[in-house]
Amino acid sequence: MALGVRTVIKISNVSIQPYEESVLPSLEIAIEITLSKDEGAIVGLSGWLKDSDGCLIAPLSQLSSAQTVLELMARGSHYDKVLREEAIYKNTFIAIVGREGLEHIERKRRAHRKGDVKLILSLNVKLLKSKACISHIHKLAPDEIGISRLKILTESGRTVDAAFLVHAYDPDFTTSTTNRWILSGDSGPVFLQVVEQQLQCNITIPASDWLHDYAPKLGLGRLYVIEVPYEGIISEAWEYVRRAEEALAKCDIESVYANCREVGTLLNRIVKESIGNRPAIKKWHRAIGYFERLSSLALHREEIRNQKPVGEIKISCEDAEFVILITKALIKYAEELLQNAP
Questions:
Q1: Those residues with Cβ within 8 angstroms of residue 14's Cβ, 6 or more apart along the chain or in another chain
Q2: Is the dihedral of CA 220, 226, 230, 235 positive or negative?
């Protein structure tokens, strides 16, 4: 890789959709890369699909490319205006995310405040750059400098007319003589250069698209969406929920349960102080009692073991998702009690 070289290149367009011609869950990613012709030609593309935190989800495999003809030109002639034009490289990649990758994407999506899928497309681009320059060589007839016709004897014994070749700067240089396109390296003997550059592009899949278009085709099935209206009256409780959802995205189940238990403790104190011994407190006692048993599941597995179930007791991400859902419902219920309790 050449050091100190920076090429103007950008991802100009990206589209993503489920790829259904694969046994494993996969995404099809079509991209367009814009590059001015004087910056070289793309000869290699590879990369990764990452989550919003930069964790690798799947490698990219090139499925197709619309660019079939690559051209490198030398600078320093009237063709430079062609070099300043932009070339668009169209490529399609497949990212085989697999089941684990898909579950990771889904956990991150559920932790996002809007439920969107946030991904990063990371590309390694290999460019072949031309460092060749045209030498502005012009033909000068001997009589133009006061010399009679100049003859040269060739090795075959023939005598041919000859002319001087001189260099003179011409910003619009061209020649009709095919062998007068004399090349040189740009400030050195190097004519070609291989440059590698990394490009990144953020991809957002809206929650509605993921639920209705992606999930069924990727094998997640149709997802049932439960909406809990957010009033934000007890803001501290919702902050604990936010932390629990961040923990869920990392599959940190203990932190999920810990934050949800904090919500229960907070709500129980606020409701008791606000409602006192009014009739609504009876309903609250039943609700918080059920919640406390549920949210302490990860701490009291022995109680389940004493019921002699078959197999080891494991707390999964699905259990944690359920606890978060019930926690949101409990906050909403507490807020309504505080607003409406007689």
A1: 29, 30, 31, 32, 121, 201, 203
A2: negative
Tens digits of residue pLDDT in 180-232 = 888 887 777 888 889 899 999 999 999 889 888 888 888 775 444 455 555 66
pLDDT digits (tens, 9 = 90+) for 295-335: 887 665 555 455 555 556 677 877 888 898 899 999 989 98
Nearest to 73 by CA among 26, 128, 34, 121: 128
Q: What is the DSSP letter of 75?
A: B
Q: How far apart are CA 49 and CA 15, in angstroms?
A: 13
Is the CB of residue 51 less than 8 Å from the CB of residue 108?
yes
Over 50: is that where the pLDDT of 37 sits?
yes
* Domain 226-340: CATH class, spelled out: mainly alpha
DSSP 104: H
Would the pTM count as exceeding 0.70? no
Query: Could you give the count of Cα atoms lying within 13 Å of 89 in the half-sphere of its Cβ?
Result: 26
State the Cα–Cα distance between residues 28 and 227, nearest whole angstrom.
Answer: 30
Q: Which residue from 313, 329, 294, 320 is spatially nearest to 106, judged by alpha carbons?
A: 320
- For the domain spanning 9-129+190-214, the CATH number is 2.60.40
Could you tell me the residue ranges of all domains in the chain?
Answer: 9-129+190-214, 133-185, 226-340
CA angle centred on 118, ends 113 and 120, rounded to 5°: 155
